[in-house]
Write a structure and sequence with these properties.
Shape: globular
Radius of gyration: 25 Å
Number of helices: 25
Largest sheet: 6 strands, parallel
Distance between the termini: 40 Å
Length: 544
């Protein structure tokens, strides 16, 4: 049955006999599952940064003697050159060439994917996600690599056995996404492939857009970007499938999946949605059969409702709500950027207050903490950025800037109407409220005391503490509550029951960090730091 995956499904069934299927039991259920889903536990995605593709394709073209120099071309020149190469059946790879380790490694990956297709069928690997997509050439470069392994086939009716999926991550990239996809789908070969496949997937990133512009701006730009993509795909006659790159923490798109799906812009779900589940959230949501069934049912029901339920927000309200969100987003963006990117000494403050250095040294993640050998916030990966703030009980990526934005917004009555009548705004504030409930400025002050320059530490932490109080007070005013989570007693009780166990772990971690940074070499200190990191993350549940 495995080897016959490429044959008609009925042929697979007849190998076992109709009697086995009709009789039920474990074998019958297995046959039925294979008949419906194919012989795959899960479909794998490939993923790589666009900058890597640029270097690799540039080297392939240079070694093959293709002129002009790819790196020197502008975007239009690159698109023209790559389009010509994709129309030709000639491979670029020169077997006798001594390619760099990076290029050889990327070629080995696409050839491994081609071998997997031959052994297991094309359903085992279907997508190639391009991180930091910023242009059409970023996607065409993937097709060039796929062609070298036979996964892109030129011709009058070109075929791509793996879909190039752009990942738009930063605020600027999300704003540029509609124009990029319009140009991408305008390429005849691309449109032919997308129409034949039945859809084109677009991944939107919650993490880097949050690190770039803060929680409120990220949330709004993701919604606006999704809305703007819809007419682009309708004009091209291609179905859009959004892939939401959510993390566990609210600063990376975490929170209720049901509320998040229901809050998607009208017409962007259409019966299909992809979302990521990461970190400790996987165990919490899918660790048992019962919890997995409950969460999957919630996702399916939310998808159906988002696809079929009528829009409950009148057009006039949609316009004024969107205008209000534009104003709020701009204010929150300025406040967030002012703290994180425009405050002298902030990067030093962050690295001394939080356990980011220990997280990187302990290698508890699968990737280095920064993309480059740099201490710049821009180069720091989103996961350690959010995770470090959670460990210090600040949760800054999940709320900073919102309090200042709401405080400066004159029409508080409009904000209350948005909370009551707009699913997007209600879900945004619900996630914000949960983050505030899990943060603790008293505990965070202990971490701030780790900053080597006390004056600098107090000045920057004072701004964070004031911002937290402003966010909490304004949230309670908009939601009309006497305290955080007053309207969500189950969640409130769950968090309150865990807090007494988390606080001693935080205090222990602060002491161990102080000793470790003072140069104490007892291996139990490093082990203790690792244990507290794991324990705090587990207790907070959605911290990474």
């Amino acid at each position: 049955a495995v080897r016959g995956l490429g044959q008609p499904r009925v042929a697979q069934r007849h190998q076992f006999g109709d009697g086995a299927l009709a009789s039920g039991g474990a074998l019958g259920r297995l046959i039925r599952a294979v008949d419906i889903f194919g012989f795959h536990l899960a479909t794998l995605d490939m993923r790589q940064n666009s900058a890597v593709h640029e270097r690799v394709v540039g080297e392939l073209l240079k070694v093959a003697g293709v002129e002009p120099d790819y790196a020197a071309l502008d975007e239009a020149g690159r698109v023209a050159l790559l389009t010509r190469e994709l129309a030709s059946p000639r491979p670029l790879t020169v077997p006798s060439a001594g390619y760099s380790d990076e290029t050889a490694g990327e070629l080995a990956i696409v050839h491994a994917a081609a071998e997997a297709h031959r052994r297991y069928g094309r359903g085992c690997i279907t997508n190639y996600i391009v991180s930091m997509s910023q242009s059409v050439s970023d996607l065409l470069e993937v097709h060039v690599l796929l062609k070298e392994a036979g996964l892109f086939v030129p011709g009058e009716a070109p075929q791509a056995h793996v879909m190039a999926v752009p990942l738009f991550e930063t605020v600027a990239d999300l704003e540029a996404a509609p124009a990029i996809m319009r140009d991408w789908l305008a390429i005849p070969a691309v449109r032919t492939i997308a129409c034949g496949r039945g859809r084109q997937e677009v991944m939107i990133g919650y993490s880097d857009s949050n690190k770039d512009g803060g929680y409120l701006t990220s949330t709004w730009q993701l919604s606006r970007g999704s809305t703007a993509l819809r007419p682009v795909f309708e004009e091209a006659g291609v179905a859009l499938q959004l892939f939401h790159g959510r993390g566990g923490a609210v600063g990376r798109g975490g929170g209720s999946a049901f509320a998040a799906i229901r809050a998607q812009p009208r017409g962007t779900v259409g019966g299909r949605i992809r979302i990521t589940e990461q970190g400790e959230v996987i165990a919490a949501k899918y660790g048992t059969r019962e919890s997995a069934a409950t969460n999957l049912e919630a996702i399916v029901s939310a998808t159906l409702l988002a696809s079929l339920a009528p829009d409950t927000v009148p057009p006039a309200d949609q316009a004024r709500f969107a205008a209000a969100m534009d104003t709020l987003s701009q204010s929150a963006f300025r406040a967030y950027r002012g703290l994180v990117y425009e405050t002298d000494g902030f990067r030093t403050f962050f690295r001394q207050m939080t356990p980011i250095r220990e997280i990187a040294d302990l290698k508890i993640g699968s990737r280095p903490a920064s993309r480059k050998q740099s201490d710049a916030i821009e180069d720091l990966r989103a996961i350690p950025w959010v995770f470090s703030w959670a460990q210090a009980r600040v949760m800054l990526p999940g709320w900073y800037g919102v309090g200042q934005a709401v405080d400066a917004f004159a029409d508080k009555g409009l904000l209350r109407a948005m909370h009551q009548g707009w699913p997007l705004f209600a879900a945004t504030l619900a996630n914000l409220e949960m983050v505030l409930a899990k943060s603790d400025m008293g505990v965070a002050a202990r971490y701030a005391a780790l900053v080597e320059d006390p004056a600098q530490g107090e000045a920057i932490f004072g701004r964070i503490r004031d911002g937290w109080h402003a966010t909490r007070d304004n949230l309670l005013a908009v939601t009309d509550q006497p305290r955080l989570l007053a309207a969500h007693p189950t969640l409130e009780n769950s968090i309150r029951l865990r807090l007494p166990y988390i606080e001693p772990l935080n205090l222990l971690q602060v002491e161990l960090l102080r000793r470790h940074r003072a140069g104490e070499t007892d291996p139990r200190i490093r082990e203790g730091i690792l244990l507290t990191i794991n324990a705090i993350a587990t207790a907070l549940r959605n911290s990474g």
